[in-house]
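Teaching assistant here, posting this on the class forum so everyone can see the example we discussed in section. The complex has two components, and the goal was to see what a joint structure prediction looks like when all of them are supplied at once.
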Amino acid sequence: MAFENLTSRMQMAFRRISGKAKLNETDIEEMMKEVRLSLLEADVNYKVVKEFTSEVKELALGEKIMKGLNPGQQVVKIVNDELVKLMGSEAVLVQFNESRPTVIMMVGLQGAGKTTSAGKLGQYLRKNHQKKPFLIAADIYRPAAIDQLVTVGNQLDIPVFQMGTQVNPREIVKEGIKKATQEGYDLIIIDTAGRLHINETLMDELIDIKKIAKPDEILLTVDAMTGQDAVNVSLAFHEALAISGCILTKLDGDTRGGAALSIRKVTGIPIKFAGTGEKLSEIEVFHPERMASRILGMGDVLTLIEKAQEEIDEEEAMSMMEKMMSGSFNFNDLLKQMKMIKRMGAFSGILKFLPGMSQLQNIDKVDDKQLVYIEAIIHSMTPEERKNPELLQRSSSRRNRVANGSGRSTTEVNRLIGTLEKQREMMKRFQGMNPSTLEKMGQNPMSDAASINKGKGKGKGGFRI
Amino acid sequence: MGIFQKLFGSKEQKLKAQKYRLGMEKTRRSMSSLKEVLTSSKKIDDALYDKLEEIFIMADIGIDTVVHFIEAIRKEVQHQSIQNPLELENIIVDKMFDLYLKGEIIDTNIRFNPSGLTLILFVGVNGTGKTTSIGKMAYKLKQEGKSVMLAAGDTFRAGAINQLKVWGERVGCLVIAKEEGADPSSVIFDAIREAKKQNIDVLLCDTAGRLQNKVNLMKELDKINRTIKRELPNTIYESYLVIDATTGQNGLNQAKVFKEATDISGIVLTKLDGTAKGGIVLAIRNELNIPISFVGLGEKITDLDYFDIENYIYGLFADFFE
């Protein structure tokens, strides 16, 4: 799918960049091309992308490369940091009115999910903020829109006020608020009709409703799959109504949701909630920082960057790499390598972060206990055996002794010895390869090994067992 | 004389295309116009190509298709050794026709079953306008003298059944429905039986909106298809994927996955009366070979029309005529 393509493309770009000591302008340009494509594929508005990438380019040029990161990772880090900054770093909540019932007005295009979101929001605020919600059905245009809200209300046990389709929405809102206030509800949610932002008559109707209802929040409901037009839509609604926030719906699809970034950048309005499923309970407070990495499409590579940065001593990693590449890798090195990995967290968890590893089918089956067993086996070897794996290969009595000492089967001992041997061979092979062969390997899990070679010791995430 | 003038010179043609233009309301701000770009450029260079790229991406045509498209334009420019930016007009329109038609003759007419019931299935993600499109199409078919029946196969969304019933009343046709939560296949099964009994010409089947990454919902679609094939053996039926013009790159994913689940024969592009251009359908046609069959151009019952590539291109570059 598009997502996979993109991830692999980004990884290609990393590989081109990684391995250089310093980030020069050409590298940044190259990387920015990929970032730009990535953002455009995520439906971020063209102009927003243009501005954003040129801003980041400037930042990247001035920045020093942090210890523990290669230049490519550094660029991604800057891009991500800026995205997070732009999206806002924390969730923004609903403003409640202290002196009278809080009024929330839902607006948006047809089919964005206003009615469903109105119900979800009522349910959410009742559950998490102990509010007493009341819904007003002000969509008199779409056939059965009122039915839909009434059904949603019934399912959630929230009262729905309606006056049929023959009454002006302004009147409905006025009466609805009166009734809700009289009956002691402290949260009123108005479901308005979906409309095009260029339909002046209907936009005027919203402006009037706003005057009548004096809402504390006007929430624009936006379909997460919206393309380039998100900018026009949000600007038009914002200009007419001064909206206070957005609800991003249908985020449970496979869309990257770049619209969120466009809206945020051109209007400055925070995204407050996200619809994450078809059930009426499936709404959550929007976490902008998580959205940044979804839009960028880099997923958890970013997490790995952070982890690697914190946990791994560069010197140690460097000498390990040199060892691996020289083909003289032995059990002592394997033990050290495993300790490094352990410091970074669970093995199966780490694997998922690695580029290319996401394609690996049985990723969840990698057992962290295996690491413990391997350690036990290595600890049962004599110092000579650890340094010199051939000793074990030659003698079955040595292998049996190790198996007994570690409490593991001889099969397991044999497998470990075999694995180490394979790894040594593989490293030797890589040394003879040219970069294009290695890039081709980016499609399979061996891609990490590829980046190790090109990275000359900089590919922090690339440890393999 | 430019190709636009040639194409839309006649009054009649212009009037028809005007409807698209009205629909595809020019964005009030920001979107650079093709005319502006071409007239303000002194020569054909990378800067000009960048501006063209912007125009096409802003229309949601999608990066891969845009890159492919620009490449085709570049080649043609080289081939004809054109230097005047204004001459690009012809090439752009030409290449856009190429991109859509791919040298084929696209017949977007509904394939009616000559000897019995014609069935049309509507699928798509949530909120694209399936039910509304069915209502409009029912009206259109009735105007053409067909007898029409509707099947309320969206038993999931609150109010969907009633929404279809309201359309049935407006158009004046029977709606077969069960209670909310019923098995959609059984609704369609009943509807086919009933339509056959009453000698109905066309049965339009609504389905629940489903995000394409939801496995169970896609399976449900599979079941619906099996039911139809069993009840109407050896009959070709249209499956229309309804896509909202505001949809961005995800539209391509939608088409890909729905194509796997059901035999999509065409696209109904809805909500083209906003500022969105719905360019993703060009990418869908380019990459997946699915043509656009109908367009929704407004909220009135008459606002569903057969797709016409000439008019669509006219709509995309409408500013040329102002």
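For the discussion questions: Chain A is about 60% helix and 10% strand. The two ends of chain A are 29 Å apart (CA to CA). Think about how each of these relates to the inputs above.
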